[in-house]
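hey m, so remember when u said the tokens were messed up on ur end? i reran from scratch. heres the input so u can diff it against urs
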Amino acid sequence: MPQFDAVIRSQRVVTPHGVVPAAVAVRGGRIAEVAAHDAPLPAVAEADLGPVALLPGGVDLDVAVRAPGQSLRDGYRATTAAAVRGGVTTVVVVPAPGAPAITGVPALNAHLAAAAGAAAHVEYLGGVTARSTPADLADLRAAGVVGFHCSLSDGWSPDVPPIDDTRLRKAMVELAAMDVPLLVHAEDAGELTEPARSGNGALLAARPPRAERRGLERVIAAARVAGTRTHVSPFSAAECAAVLAAARAIGIAVSAQTCPHYLCLPAEQVPDDSPAFRCRPPLRSGANRNALWSALLPDGDSPITAIGSGHRPGTGIAAIEWTLPALWTAAARRGRGLAELARWTATAPADLVGLRARGRVAPGCAADLVAFDPAAEQVVPSADPGPYAGRRLAGRVTATWVAGRRVSGGPGDGVRGGPLAATGGRGFTECRE
């Protein structure tokens, strides 16, 4: 009788110990064993990826799921389907604009119901507002949110307005006691102006880097007092990386994540009138892009620990499906490897929100896996609503498994040995190694 539900072999498996040839055995939705590439492992189903790499499934923080005019259920279906096509196996949903805003348990329950049957794992961030009480925060945490989110400027919904320094400090004290992270949209409202006209250039002028700097200063001051693990998302102004690094150097638990579009798309090279490139913070200059890469790739500890899609369907950049190829296109040109790709998009974000059984290929972890061909090239369809439409990208996701079940990839996807459809569970809380 076969011992495992499935075995996936690859010449390049990205493990916590390096990129190695290996065979990954799956049982009951978990990784049961990571063995030598040619190890005899009896299983119901088997696939040999050959030179196609096997990565841990992406954990995407700060994801919005609902476009204007779309039902919440349809938003979850569309977003998670796009996520698994792009190798993202866990989406961590922001409180808004997916109405109802997740500021209390009834709203969280509405999201849980809408997400039933989603293609990927779904986790949630609770919203912190001026009306949030300690009881509200405690109840949301008890109901299962993995962290909290707030904005210092224009939030994504009237239900999640910006908060002032007093409310920020009070919330941080509560969250430090719970030992959960706070994600902050850190543009300072006082440094923003109304755009003088429509277009991406006017948006950039209205939201200068100093808005991020001032917001970071406020966040760091509060985190220093409260001791809260704080994560700035999204981070775009490279000149502010030194501020983050200095705070980390004196022991403040602050980090940041950026997005592929800030690393790939300089403002000078995008159409001014296209909404596909409109985001907050806005796309910045090519010089800023290069400096952001320098901040991400220092010799020592980088304050930018994670990279997520910043997915905002209908209200910003919608590109969750292209996170890995877009990031790989730029990273490979700079001599970076698959291990860094997995750390930025899977391991670091999973660790931040306490999902330590995800984001890595190791025994005992969830069998959330991605077949990624770094040598392949593809042209993004011209009809794609995101910023990469018509662009040639390096790398292709050829198959995705969530809790051991293959949810994306089909004939001609470069995976040899036939489909894998091992059943498995969800909600793993620890990773045995």
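this time it looks ok to me. The two ends are 25 Å apart (CA to CA). if urs says something different then somethings off w ur setup not the seq
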